[in-house]
Design goal:
This is ExoP galactose-binding-like domain-containing protein. The termini are far apart. This protein folds into two domains: 150 residues, Galactose-binding lectin (Jelly Rolls); 168 residues, Jelly Rolls, CATH 2.60.120.430. The protein is mainly beta. The radius of gyration is 22 Å and the shape is elongated. The protein contains no helices and 22 strands. A hairpin with a 2-residue loop joins strand 13 and strand 14.
Length: 351
C-alpha cells in the first residue's frame, strides 16, 4: 500500500466511494481484501464491474487484478479503456480475460483473498465505487469476452517490464450454452446455463495438475487422475443421462498408456467397466485441441446419474500411465444427443 492514500467519501450514499491519490513514487495499489478466502468459481465466465472517475491524467499503465498473494495474480490492463474525462466511467472486465503476467500464476477462483486489486506506479488521482462481480452484464466490456482483444487490437503494457498477459489456451471461443445445459468447467458464455462448477471443482491425485487460464493440464509420472468433483459431492445429473458431455481435449503424450479413460462417478461408487476410451485414433497426441461430444451413457450407468461425485474423471490404463500428459477445458452437459452427432468421429479438431 506504499505510495497511496485513500479515504471514504459520500457519493450516492454514506462512505460508498473511495477517493484515492497515488503519489507515483512507488507501487500504488488500491485493493479490497477478504478476511477469509472467497469461492468465486461461479464467476469464471462472468465480469468485474466498477465505476471510476479520474481526477488527474490517466497513467500509461493501470492493471486490474484478482489476487491471492503474489505470484497468484490474474490481471487485465485497463488504462486504454479510460477516457480521462473526469466523469464517472463504468468499466466491465471479463474475468476469463484476466491472465497472469510472466512470473505470476493464474489465481484460483475457488480461494480468492483479494477480489479486487488496482495498481499503477505512476501518479494518479481517482474516485472508485460500485465494485461488484456479475454473472452477466448488458454493458460493453473493456475487451471482447471471446477474443480478449481491446477495440482496435490495442493492449496495454504491464506494470513491470515485459509483462504481457498470457493469451490463454486458444480454445476459449466455446459456443454459448442454453438454459437446459450444465456448465462444469466452461470458458464460453454460460450465463443462461446451470453453473455447476462450484459443485465439481478441479482436483487430482498421483500427478501434477495445473489450472491456469481456464485450462486444466495434467502430467502423470505414474498412476493418477484428473477430475471435477469431490468425495462429498452428490449432485443429481440424471437429466443428462440420455444426453452428451462436451469436452475440449488436447493430448501432448499418451506416454505408456494406450488410451485415456474418461468416465463419471456416482456416489454408489465408480463403475470401472463404464468409460469412454480415448486413443490416438480419435485424438492424436499432437498438442492440438479437439472438441469432443461424448454420450453420457458411455461415461456412467444411467442408474448412477442421480447422485454424482465426479462429473468428469480422466485417467490412463492402470500401471501404464507414466508420461501421460493432457489438457482439457470447456466441459458441459447437454440433455440430448445432437442430430448430427457421428459416433465414428466424436472429436473434431478446433481450427
Amino acid at each position: 500500500m506504499t505510495s497511496i492514500s485513500a479515504v471514504l467519501i459520500n457519493n450516492a450514499g454514506t462512505d460508498d466511494t473511495a477517493d484515492v491519490q497515488v503519489a507515483g513514487d512507488g507501487d500504488g495499489t488500491f485493493m479490497l481484501k477478504s478476511a477469509t478466502p472467497l469461492n468465486l468459481s461461479k464467476y469464471a465466465s462472468g465480469f468485474i464491474e466498477f465505476q471510476l472517475r479520474t481526477k488527474s491524467k490517466v497513467p500509461e499503465v493501470l492493471n486490474a487484478s484478482i489476487d491471492n498473494e503474489y505470484p497468484n495474480r490474474s490481471s487485465l490492463p485497463i488504462a486504454s479503456a479510460l477516457t480521462g474525462s473526469g466523469n464517472w466511467e463504468t468499466l466491465t472486465l471479463p474475468i476469463n480475460c484476466m491472465k497472469p503476467f510472466p512470473g505470476a500464476k493464474a489465481v484460483n477462483l475457488a480461494t480468492v483473498g483479494t477480489p479486487f486489486h488496482l495498481a499503477t506506479k505512476e501518479a494518479f488521482n481517482y474516485e472508485i465505487t460500485n465494485i461488484k462481480y456479475l454473472l452477466a452484464t448488458s454493458a460493453k466490456p473493456v475487451v471482447d469476452p471471446v477474443t480478449c482483444e481491446a477495440p482496435g487490437g490495442a493492449t496495454d503494457p504491464g506494470t513491470d517490464p515485459d509483462t504481457n498477459p498470457d493469451t490463454g489456451s486458444g480454445v476459449n471461443n466455446a459456443p454459448a450454452l442454453v438454459a437446459t445445459d450444465a456448465a462444469l468447467y466452461y470458458s464460453g458464455d454460460k450465463s443462461q446455463a446451470q453453473d455447476r462448477s462450484a459443485d465439481y471443482p478441479a482436483a487430482s491425485f498421483g500427478g501434477t495438475l495445473t489450472d491456469e487460464n481456464q485450462v486444466i493440464t495434467m502430467d502423470l509420472p505414474g498412476n493418477g487422475a484428473a477430475f471435477l468433483g469431490t468425495d462429498s459431492a452428490n449432485g443429481d445429473l440424471s437429466a443428462y443421462q440420455d444426453g452428451v458431455m462436451l469436452l475440449d481435449l488436447k493430448v501432448s503424450s499418451y506416454g505408456d498408456s494406450p488410451n485415456i479413460q474418461i468416465r463419471m462417478d456416482g456416489t454408489a461408487g465408480p463403475d470401472f467397466g463404464t468409460f469412454f476410451t480415448m486413443d490416438s485414433n480419435i485424438v492424436p497426441d499432437d498438442d492440438t485441441w479437439y472438441r469432443c461430444i461424448l454420450p453420457v451413457a458411455s461415461l456412467i450407468p444411467a442408474t448412477n446419474t442421480g447422485s454424482v461425485q465426479k462429473a468428469l474423471y480422466l485417467s490412463g490404463a492402470w500401471d501404464s500411465m507414466a508420461g501421460l500428459r493432457f489438457a482439457f477445458t470447456n466441459v458441459a452437459l447437454k440433455t440430448a444427443i445432437p442430430a448430427d452427432f457421428d459416433s465414428n468421429q466424436p472429436c473434431q479438431q478446433i481450427k
